[in-house]
Amino acid sequence: MIRRTLTGLILSTLAATAVAVAVQAPAAHAACTSIPANHDPAVIVMVYRTARSLNVNDKVMLSGFEAGWVESHMNNLPCGDKSSLGVFQQRWDYGWGTPEQIMDVVYASTQYFSRAIGCARDNPGYRPGQVAQCVQRSGFPDRYDQVEGKARALWAEARRVAETAANASTDVTGDGRDDILTFTQNTLADVYAAPSTGSAFAGTSVKWNDFFALGGETALAGDFNGDGRDDIVAFTHGTTGTAAGDVYVALSTGTGFTGGAKWHDWFAPGAEVPAVGDVNGDGKDDIITFTHNPAGDVYVALSSGSSFGAGVKWHEFFAPAAEYPAVGDVNGDGRDDIITFTQGPATASDVIVGLSNGSSFGPGLKWHDLFAVGAELPRVGDVNGDGKDDIVTFTCNADADVYAAVSTGTSFAGTTVKWNDFFCTAGEFPILGDVNGDGKDDIIVFTKGATNDVYVGISTGTGFLGGAKWHDFFGLTGETTL
């Protein structure tokens, strides 16, 4: 096992700052004539993931989004006042690093949050804006607190993107019933599992791995060696450093996960959105990444059973920034396809599908023209048990409605077909899984917050039953739950 430590990763990122010689000025430095009105979606995701990798608290996290919005509107600016550069407008001649380092969002974010942690620790009464001022030392110290609302909205958007790929199968015991997993993603990096008995999830603090998926990494699950038991995978992301773009897998033994082993050394870097699915139909789950930027590329690395092959482009425009990508076998041919929810207003909430032919994804075709509006949380799974994955959306608000549109093999049928009228309120996290092994995916929600309960709504094939508590302490706030 290649055992990584959180301290080691942080130090390797910061080591480049320990340069004894003076930093040379860049050949030319331009002042910004203007700052973009809107944020760069990729930048906010990288800032968020970096903060998570350092296990910052909410105050420090919010301070970073306040500082980033004030300084650059969350854009990686190649210009600025005097020698300032990048998302936080850090100055190369004031010890923040070289111009090249400052223009690396992960590096710049690490520099900001490392200092903000100290400011917050030494000044426990500081507001987030005061923490930002402590780091930035601006001539206009009140600006940061004034943008708290905008900063919170950007933080929420970044978190939503980082949690996009939540549709992972989790039958870790191989008994045909999906189980639940939680990754602490803190300095301990523990992984806990609670297997399904068919009527409840068993086990409160049953640790299946004691060091996997550090903060800021994306944790998912899938059967990567084809033995019928779902394994876990971690995407390190990043753009520079010894662990940038690595992919680690820990195989399931049925009662625990083995130590993490590197299966790929460059996949889903930066702000890309990774996913898992069997795209070539060989019985082993592969890895997929959506660049989630204006290019909208989709890359695949196929599983050999012991590693992932080279990343190959399978689509050149799918799920650009602001859309919600997913994976599932929507036509029932045994190969997982790609799906994207455009998530606009009611007039622009389309669902687009790219079918897999085993070596690439076909052109994006509209399968639904009104589903998962705005901030709703869409998921993909076979809820009626016909072998074709369907789409489900959770409003996760005061209404707490759940809607489904079932696959016909060529489209999703049903526009406002409500399958449950009270499941998943604000702040809770929903997923799908076949928890009783009847071939139909059910709905599961982690309440988080003060209760940390897990509720299940069993699928009847035409609706979901009322929520029943299957666990009373699992998936704490800040943990990643599958």
Automatic annotation (TrEMBL):
Top-level taxon in the UniProt lineage: Bacteria
InterPro entries recorded: FG-GAP (IPR013517), Integrin_alpha_N (IPR028994)
Annotated coiled-coil segments of the chain: none
Descriptive protein name: FG-GAP repeat protein
Keywords on record: Signal
Record-annotated membrane-spanning stretches: none
UniProt xrefs under Pfam families: FG-GAP (PF01839), FG-GAP_3 (PF13517)
Protein's UniProt keywords contain Signal: yes
Signal sequence residues: 1-30
